[in-house]
Specification:
single chain; 239 residues; two-stranded antiparallel sheet; elongated
Length: 239
């Protein structure tokens, strides 16, 4: 093997690094997010004992796109906001959102779904469930999940505001909002299926975890949020 010159050494180390990144990406299936575009490179002359002329006749190997990180909430929320701005109902919003997601790589859609699951987990709180319980006049586990789906579908500003003060959710209902949106929870799966042809992988999310905060009983709701109870359920209702 001939001795490598300075330029060849630089190219060699660069090729080795890209090959290592490629193998890591394939082995661990790196999550979506920003992309690093790896240039199409083959082994530098001399590394495998080939001359530059023989190397030029070899099929060039293309290193794949390697993603740094998964889709962030800063990328998640604009999609949710855009889908809401173009629609009036939950089902319409879910359909538009699925359409927007179809333009993304399937791995990005998986990440979008994980972000959604993370927000569902974040909003699984007893105080918010109490507000939902008053709104519905009783709220099951499934109904509470649909309620949180509706909350996420309202966009980042509304979600963050309600996380700061759960009572604000009741203000939206008083304004005519329908506080449930199950369809939004399946928009990512719809987009993923249309591209891949199979169900989206399950996100990391514990459906059976206990909500955060202090638990309550149904008969205590009027005392927890008396103003909301009076406005939405009526002062004469005992439970």
């Amino acid at each position: 093997m001939r001795k490598l010159r300075g330029a060849d050494l630089t190219a060699t180390f660069r090729w080795i690094a890209l090959e290592a990144l490629r193998h890591v990406a394939e082995r661990y299936k790196l999550p979506a997010g920003k992309l690093i575009e790896a240039q199409s490179l083959s082994a530098p002359a001399g590394l495998l004992g080939h001359s530059r002329r023989s190397q030029s006749r070899q099929k060039r190997r293309v290193a794949p796109l390697i993603r740094e990180e998964r889709m962030s909430l800063d990328e998640f929320w604009p999609l949710m906001d855009q889908s809401r701005s173009e629609t009036r109902t939950c089902d319409e919003q879910a359909e538009v959102l699925a359409g927007l997601l179809r333009s993304y790589d399937p791995r990005d859609i998986v990440d979008f779904n994980q972000n959604l699951a993370d927000l569902l987990a974040k909003s699984k709180r007893w105080d918010l469930w109490a507000v939902a319980g008053i709104i519905y006049g009783g709220c099951s586990d499934d109904a509470f999940e649909d309620f949180r789906g509706w909350l996420i579908a309202q966009g980042r500003a509304v979600f963050d505001s309600v996380m700061e003060n759960p009572e604000r959710a009741a203000d939206l209902v008083a304004g005519g909002e329908d506080p449930e949106c199950e369809a939004i929870l399946y928009a990512a799966n719809s987009a993923y299926q249309s591209i891949v042809g199979e169900q989206i992988p399950d996100p990391k999310y514990d459906y059976f975890s206990e909500p955060e905060g202090k638990a309550w009983k149904q008969e205590q709701l009027r005392d927890i949020y008396p103003e909301i109870w009076k406005r939405l359920r009526g002062a004469d209702l005992a439970s």
